[in-house]
Design a protein that fits this description.
The complex is a heterodimer of chains A (1038) and B (449).
Chain A (H helix, E strand, L loop, with lengths): L10 H4 L3 H7 L9 H7 L8 H19 L24 E6 L8 E7 L2 E7 L12 H10 L9 E2 L2 E2 L3 H17 L3 E6 L5 H13 L3 E5 L6 H11 L4 E4 L6 E5 L10 H10 L11 E6 L4 H4 L3 E4 L5 H16 L16 H11 L4 E5 L4 H13 L7 E7 L6 H13 L2 E7 L3 H4 L3 H8 L2 E4 L6 H5 L2 E2 L10 E6 L2 E5 L12 H8 L3 H5 L17 H9 L7 H10 L1 E3 L17 H6 L7 E5 L13 H5 L7 E2 L4 E3 L1 H6 L6 E7 L2 E10 L7 E5 L6 E3 L3 E2 L24 E2 L3 E8 L3 E2 L14 E3 H6 L31 E6 L8 H9 L7 H5 L8 E10 L2 E3 L2 H8 L5 H4 L1 E8 L8 H5 L5 E3 L5 E3 L9 H5 L6 E2 L35 E2 L5 H13 L12 H5 L5 E5 L6 H6 L4 E2 L11 E4 L1 E3 L5
Parallel strand pairs in A: 6-7, 6-14, 9-10, 9-12, 10-11, 14-15, 15-16, 20-25, 22-24, 31-43, 32-42
Antiparallel strand pairs in A: 1-2, 2-3, 4-5, 4-16, 8-13, 17-18, 18-19, 20-28, 21-30, 22-25, 23-24, 23-29, 26-27, 32-40, 33-34, 33-35, 36-37, 38-39, 41-42
Helix pairs in contact in A: 5-26, 7-18, 8-13, 11-12, 11-13, 14-16
Chain B lengths: L17 H13 L4 H27 L14 H12 L1 H12 L9 H21 L27 H34 L3 H10 L7 H34 L11 H27 L8 H32 L2 H12 L3 H13 L7 H5 L1 H28 L14 H24 L5 H5 L7
Helix pairs in contact in B: 2-15, 3-5, 3-9, 3-14, 4-5, 4-8, 4-9, 5-6, 5-9, 5-15, 6-7, 6-8, 8-9, 9-10, 9-14, 10-11, 10-12, 11-12, 12-14
The chains are: A alpha/beta (1038), B mainly alpha (449).
């Protein structure tokens, strides 16, 4: 049945009323009452549907257009022809030699896709022995410093053409020689055979040239003392690894003195306690608390100006004990509470394994020290004068002569190679250099000295250079480039050879037909020169390549002895005249971070907390508590210091525990005026960082870094230092455990013999944690006896994990980003015993006696994410951004993090770090993350974190993954997986061990069974994956 | 029929008739805004502006513009959050719990208390939302099906419980408030002159007719919602307290927190109600509706809850000592005698000591004094949260990470700004909606026979 029934709405439709039909065409039968409504309210609504569509269309289009922000396109261009030795994603490692300082540690450079991104120690180098210092670690960033000179400068203007510059300079130098004018070549200590040969070639062409070695912080005192006593102006090789009793007078041999990595490696070998008592004893006399002093078993305050008396007294006691003649000096009564006598006894007992060193740059003091070591039979045992060190050779006297010569006009031309005397010797250099007819600097940055030179011929960074080194007699190391020149720079040696017209020597590669480097590195003429230089010893390609691959070539240890011709008794008058203490002494010291200031523009070093004070980004006057109370100085105050005619006003003050009474200390290496945006630059308008303490050094004779009769008053201003740690005592908490060697011998659990913690849990142990589970279980062990607090791990971690630099203001707000930190705690020793609580210390303070402030024990405790099995951070994250892996790692998923920060609050170790800002591409944080060149140091295996996410130590999960994959690829068993975290790899004292607990043979498994092992905050049952070894001090009796 | 004893003080004074009630309470809505309202509203908008500026600055630059740091990662933000959530407590308590207990005196104040609750929860919600480092992905905290793989939220996290607790509380409070408003909105609908007004009130009155059947349903829904929201009074702040109580931080890891937080929340909530009503009854001439009797009752609650909170403070101290846990002991000694002693003693004197004046009848019946005391209570409760959060974090386990913390200008701006949000909402509420529940109030007039 067809449906033809019709319904209609009403009569109007049925009757087809025209007006109804017209109205029906409208969608809405009646007008919407909107007009009425709005008009009543005094609002006019003129828009009809067309208008509405127009507005709507316009709005949608506008919004759509506004949303079409075009993101910049970045192309990743693949290799058209893949270089043979580059596999994207796989790192290459090259052996080389660190050029950060004259110490010349052997290193291994990690190169990813043609970019060197990490420097670590080479295990084959007897200098570094696999470790690195913080400066060496950080030196890689100076390669990617966008403030480096991109081109040579001629009278301040850039010149791109080296050839024109060469002919101009050669002509000028020739005219100087023609007029019989002298040329001074002032360099840092050089021990590279090829470089020295290049300098000889230069001297051959310009016979009036004198080569002077200048070290900003020199060892001329030791060098001159050895010249006088042994007829050999050289530093000896100190063997801390065989020394059982070490006495140091102000020498910071673990931090900055001569060869700190080598010494740390040697020193820590004997710092392991064992039942036989094999641990060495370390006694330190010093004015300010150095990093080395913090590790000493016994530490005695000493006035720097009285060092001669201290050393002479020790000599006399030892002479008394060994039947030698004493230095005829009047007795001064007891010094340092009979400690020198006891020290002498300890040394005498350890004859043949004793070592005495002094940080003084005074020849006479060093002669007495030589005398002591002679009496103790240290030469040939703990000191090797035959296979001497070449690391430092600078002569302060000759440097001063160059200055005088320039002033008087007797030197007409001067060339600076790796030195910056305007900054770190004397301001007089600026005027003197201007008097020279020719002045050339090889500085790679326009530093203070380069700014006043006519020509700046920027040297390559050491990672762009070919070179060799002989840090110790008979020990050769090689430097090979790991990247082609970033800028239009040229190795200084090439410049010198070019000016000497020795081009032929550089062009000729004796092995060009076979050499694998020859084709690629034609642009590096110094390679040819060096290769020629080695043709006698390393004649074949294979030999040369093998040496390069190893990085080290040892020609064997020379036997023999040295004859001692010193006469200590003759120094009596020197001692007598230098034993009176008056006024206040100021010690100028190299900080572990920026050292002598050469790396002042390196943000990693500026942001590395000082190992002792934990201050970043500034130097400060370290005051003893007694003096601070006298001057009414509190934290945050400043002081005015005046020595002779040098005055600095409003220098930040800090009350430093361990600082000897009547002495203050100020770090060198700050106050750069032409370093750059990080270190400060007057020309570019960046504030200087700290004050230049070199101005206080006494440049007469061998430079003295002890200023006497310092005038010190309270300053008008306040200044907040950027410190990463502001509370310094452990408040009696069981966080760090320590004991003495005596107690340890009786009970290996000494100090760690806590009642067993009863922890009840309703949960079963996780499957992956059970013994015999098939997975890895990563864990770490840290030996507090080995850790010296040097901070190398902090910098290494920052490099490996792309940790941003945040700058002084952020650190003041307590927002440093370091994933690993070294907690440093003081314990104050007074008559009432050792105090670790603030209120106890304050109580003793109230008595007005501040001796306990001089007399502190120090503990360093590296602290990073503990990768707790029951991690408090994991349960509180609302979005599961931090979770646990089945290999025991506490993982952070940056992408998932929404930034509630609860995990950070709930971390009992406070190791989580939050990205408060975007630290990359942000002009407010104008460090290496803010320019394309600086970003080349970024580790491509680690995400650069965005603003608003939490981050923390990952146990270098990228290295874990790499190690696992490598083992798998090579078909090895899981127990053969080798993973070293970045902190462990850098550590110069082998304090950090990382490994798999499920591998019973791993070092970490063994350490987990060690009686000294403890976990921090074990009672919280968070079950951390880091065990610390109880600190054992060898201080039962001196 | 009247259930109240005639011996009792009248809940509504001034011999008001039902039409008086409507006239008095609808007056501000039907008339043009008064000068006092305009001044107050402008001032609120200024503070709202401060909030906007501070928030934009924070969002644009990063929450680094606050002074929170590596150890104190929550500061003013979460202090303010807990503060506002606490204030938001009185509304539900008054409307739900007192309704169930048939406390008729609540009828004059429940509307404004509920409004206050809703606005306070809005203010509170600002902080957990904007304290997030990446607020633009904040919705990941919701258990939404997603395209990110198998990602899901962590039901172990108290922050997630917060998300549920606060959103449930907010929706139930809003619903309860709105249902209660329907008869009154209908009254306004019938009185308002403008067409727009008629439409708007008409829409929101949802076709209320006032028939017996609607009234019966209305009463039933009110009762059900009261039953539903009563547990919320306890649950919301209990869950907020677990943000701290489930952690391992000494000073936070405390089982006493849930009851102590709930008591504190009621305490601060009534403090805020008192602040608002003492002013409102004066400015809007509602002395006959919000009587001294109301103030008296509220101050009694303030005194009782203040004392409970005070006892909780002392109990914490006792337990810290009794536990023998040195970290716990230090945390509490440090609160009272450490660098933040001033915050602690402000809290103690404002919350425990000051409310004891309400033992005296004069103190309970003098509006200006109650106003001052209510401010004191709110200051004290802000300090309580500051003390709990900051003093626990600034010195926890490892002394190496001990820090100091003080709010930055932006953090202060955000806090002041939330008062802008709160009062802007409240002024709009006072202008456009009846601040007293007319319909219910009419049921307790004595002269209605």
């Amino acid at each position: 049945m067809s449906n033809n029934i019709k319904y209609w709405k009403g009569e109007d439709e049925l009757t087809k009323n025209p007006s109804f039909l017209a109205a029906q065409r409208n969608e809405f039968h009646d007008d919407l009452p909107l007009d009425e409504v709005f008009n009543e309210e005094g609002v006019e609504l003129q828009a009809n549907r067309r208008d509405f569509l127009k507005y709507f269309g316009f709005s949608v289009t506008a919004v759509a257009l506004a949303a079409c922000y075009k993101t910049p396109i970045r192309n990743a261009v693949p290799y058209l022809v893949k270089p043979e030795d580059v596999t994207p994603g796989v790192a290459n490692y090259y052996r080389s030699t660190c050029g950060a300082c004259a110490t010349a540690c052997g290193i291994e450079v990690k190169v990813r896709e043609g970019r060197p991104i990490k420097v670590d120690g080479s295990v084959d180098s007897p200098i570094s022995q696999g470790g690195t210092c913080a400066v060496g670690q950080a030196s890689i960033l100076s390669l990617y410093d966008n403030e480096r000179l991109a081109n040579p400068l001629s009278n301040g203007s850039e010149q791109t053409d080296w050839t024109a510059l060469d002919s101009e300079i050669s002509a000028k130098l020739k005219s100087v020689v023609a007029a019989n004018g002298k040329i001074a070549l002032v360099s840092g200590s050089l021990h590279s055979p090829s470089t020295l040969k290049a300098i000889e070639a230069f001297k051959g062409a310009y016979p009036t040239t004198e080569h002077v070695s200048y070290d900003a912080v020199s060892y001329a005192g030791i060098l001159d003392a050895n010249a006088a006593d042994f007829g050999k102006r050289a530093l000896p090789t100190y063997k801390f690894d065989v020394a059982k009793v070490i006495v140091s007078f102000g020498a910071d041999f673990l931090g900055t003195w001569i060869s700190p990595v080598e010494f740390s490696k040697g020193y820590t070998k004997n710092r392991q306690p064992n039942a036989e008592g094999g641990m060495s004893k370390h006694i330190q006399f010093e004015s300010s608390l150095s990093m080395t002093g913090t590790n000493a078993d016994h530490r005695f305050p000493m006035r720097a100006s009285q060092e001669a008396l201290y050393v002479a007294t020790l000599y006399n006691y030892i002479a008394m004990g060994s039947g030698a003649r004493q230095i005829p000096v009047p007795q001064q009564g007891e010094l340092a509470g009979n400690s020198i006598k006891k020290t002498a006894d300890a040394l005498l007992k350890a004859k043949g394994t004793a070592l005495v060193v002094s940080g003084s740059n005074n020849t006479e003091i060093q002669q007495i020290v030589n005398g002591i070591n002679m009496l103790l039979g240290s030469y040939g045992t703990t000191i090797d004068m035959v296979n001497h060190s070449n690391q430092y050779q600078g002569s302060d006297v000759k440097t001063a002569e160059v200055l005088a010569g320039l002033k008087s006009g007797s030197i007409s031309a001067v060339i600076f190679y790796g030195v910056n005397p305007v900054y770190n010797h004397s301001k007089d250099w600026a005027e003197a250099i201007k008097k020279a007819k020719v002045s050339i600097s090889f500085a790679s940055n326009k530093d203070e000295t380069a700014s006043v030179c006519q020509y700046v011929c920027p040297d390559n960074h050491y990672l762009e250079s070919w070179n060799d080194a002989e840090p110790r007699k008979g020990l050769y190391q090689f430097t090979q480039p790991t990247i082609s020149n970033v800028f239009n720079t040229r190795q200084a040696q090439v410049s010198l050879l070019t000016w000497a017209n020795a081009n032929i020597a550089m062009e000729k590669d004796p092995f060009a037909s076979k050499g694998i480097f020859s084709q690629k590195l034609q642009a590096s003429p110094f390679y040819n020169f060096m290769r020629n230089n080695w043709s006698a010893t390393l004649g074949t390609d294979d030999a040369f390549n093998a040496a390069l691959e190893k990085g080290v070539l040892a020609s064997g240890i020379s036997e023999g002895g040295v004859s001692y011709v010193g006469n200590v008794e003759a120094l009596a008058s020197f001692v007598s005249s230098n034993s009176k203490a008056t006024g206040i002494d100021m010690v100028l010291y190299q900080p572990v971070g920026v050292r002598d200031g050469a790396y002042g523009n390196n943000p990693w070093l500026q942001e590395m907390p000082d190992p002792v004070s934990k201050v970043c980004w500034d130097n400060y006057v370290a005051l003893p508590k007694s003096l601070a109370m006298k001057l009414e100085i509190a934290e945050g105050d400043t002081v005015n210091i005046k020595v002779g005619d040098v005055t600095y006003n409003n220098v930040p003050a800090m009350i430093q525990p361990g600082q000897a009474n009547e002495t203050v200390a100020l770090a060198l290496g700050y106050g750069r005026t032409a370093a750059g945006k990080v270190g400060g630059s007057v020309e570019k308008g960046y504030d200087t960082v700290g004050v230049n303490a070199f101005a206080f050094a006494n440049n007469t004779g061998n430079r003295s870094f002890v200023a006497k009769n310092v005038d010190i008053t309270k300053g008008d201003e306040n200044y907040k230092l950027a410190q990463t740690q502001t509370h310094h005592s452990i408040e009696g908490r069981d966080i760090v455990r320590e004991s003495t060697l005596g107690a340890f011998k009786k009970n290996p659990k000494a100090g760690n013999d806590m009642p067993e913690t009863h922890i009840y849990t309703i949960w079963e142990k996780a499957e992956y944690r059970k013994d015999g589970a098939p997975n890895h279980l990563w864990a770490m062990a840290i030996d507090l006896n080995s850790c010296t607090g040097c901070g190398s791990c902090v910098v290494s971690c920052s490099i490996e994990n792309n940790v941003p630099v945040v700058g002084r203001d952020e650190i003041r707000l307590r927002r440093e980003m370091h994933w690993i930190r070294i907690d440093r705690y003081y314990a104050f020793n007074s008559a009432e015993g050792t105090m670790t609580k603030d209120d106890e210390i304050a109580k003793v303070d109230a008595s007005g006696n501040y001796d306990h402030w001089q007399n502190v024990n120090v503990l360093h405790q590296p602290m990073m994410c503990q990768h707790c099995a029951n991690a408090p951070c994991e349960t509180v994250c609302p979005v599961l951004a931090t979770t646990h892996s089945t290999e025991g790692l506490n993982q952070m998923t940056y992408n998932r993090c929404i930034g509630t920060k609860y995990c950070g609050n709930n971390c009992p170790y406070k190791v989580r770090r939050f990205n408060w800002f975007r630290y990359n591409d942000n002009d407010h944080f104008d460090f290496h993350f803010n320019n394309p060149l600086g970003k080349m140091v970024i580790n491509p295996d680690v995400t650069v974190r965005t603003r608003g996410v939490m981050e923390k130590c990952s146990f270098c999960v990228q290295r874990v993954q790499e190690g696992k994959l490598k083992a798998k690829r090579e078909g090895k068993s899981p127990n053969e997986v080798v993973v070293q975290t970045a902190c462990q790899r850098a550590c110069p004292s082998n304090a950090i061990v990382f490994g798999d607990l499920h591998n019973p043979e791993s070092e970490v498994s063994k350490l987990y069974k060690n009686e000294r092992g403890f976990s921090v905050l074990e009672e919280l049952n968070v079950q951390s994956s880091v065990k610390y070894m109880t600190k054992i001090r060898n201080n039962d009796s001196i | 029929m009247i259930h109240d004893s005639i011996l009792r003080d009248r809940l509504v004074t001034g011999d008001k008739s039902a039409s008086d009630v409507t006239r008095d309470i609808a007056r501000p809505i039907l008339n043009n805004p008064s000068t006092a309202w305009k001044i107050g509203f402008t001032l609120s908008l200024v503070f709202l502006g401060i909030f906007g500026v501070s928030l934009l600055y924070t969002l644009y630059t990063g929450i680094g513009v606050w002074n929170i740091n590596k150890s104190v990662m929550w500061g003013w933000d979460i202090t303010n959050f807990v503060f506002w959530v606490g204030i938001g407590h009185a509304g539900t308590l008054i409307s739900a719990v007192l309704l169930l207990f048939r406390q008729k005196w609540r009828m004059s104040i429940n509307r404004s208390a509920e409004a206050m609750t809703i606005f306070a929860v809005i203010c509170a919600a600002m902080f957990p939302v904007f304290h997030m480092g990446r607020v633009w992905v904040g919705y990941w905290a919701l258990p939404l099906p997603n395209a990110f793989g198998s990602l899901w939220v962590n039901f172990n996290s108290p922050l997630l419980w917060d998300v549920f607790a606060i959103s449930t509380y907010f929706s139930v409070s809003l619903l309860f408030w709105y249902i209660g408003l329907i008869p009154d909105i209908a009254t306004i609908r019938d009185k308002v002159k403008s067409k727009l007004g008629k439409n708007m009130y008409g829409f929101f009155s949802m076709g209320w007719t006032g028939s017996t059947r609607t009234w019966a349903r209305y009463e039933l829904v009110s009762l059900i919602l009261a039953g539903l929201s009563t547990p919320l009074v306890l649950s919301v702040h209990t869950i907020v307290s677990t943000d701290f109580a489930t952690s391992v931080i000494p000073g936070w890891h405390t089982t006493i927190f849930p009851p102590y937080f709930v008591a504190g929340a009621i305490f601060s909530g009534f403090g805020m109600v008192a602040t608002l009503l003492v002013v409102a009854r004066k400015v809007m001439n509602y002395e006959n509706y919000i009587t001294i009797g109301h103030l008296d009752a509220m101050t009694r609650i303030i005194m009782v809850t203040g004392t409970i909170v005070g006892i909780a403070y002392l109990t914490e101290f006792f337990i810290a000592w009794y536990s023998g846990n040195i970290y716990e002991q230090y945390a509490f000694t440090n609160r009272a005698f450490g660098p933040y002693w001033w915050a602690y003693w402000s809290m103690m004197s404002c919350n425990l000591i000051a409310p004891q004046v309400f033992w005296f009848k004069w103190a309970r019946t003098t509006p200006w004094f109650i106003f001052i005391m209510s401010i004191v209570v709110n200051v004290g409760m802000w300090f309580e949260r500051f003390v709990i959060i900051v003093t626990s974090l600034h010195r926890d386990y490892l002394p190496s990470s001990w820090v100091m913390y003080s709010g930055s200008l932006t953090e202060i701006g955000l806090f002041l700004g939330t008062f802008g949000i709160f009062f802007t909402c409240f002024f709009l509420f006072a202008k456009f909606l009846p601040v007293i529940n007319m319909a219910e109030l009419k049921s307790i007039l004595r002269n209605r026979e």
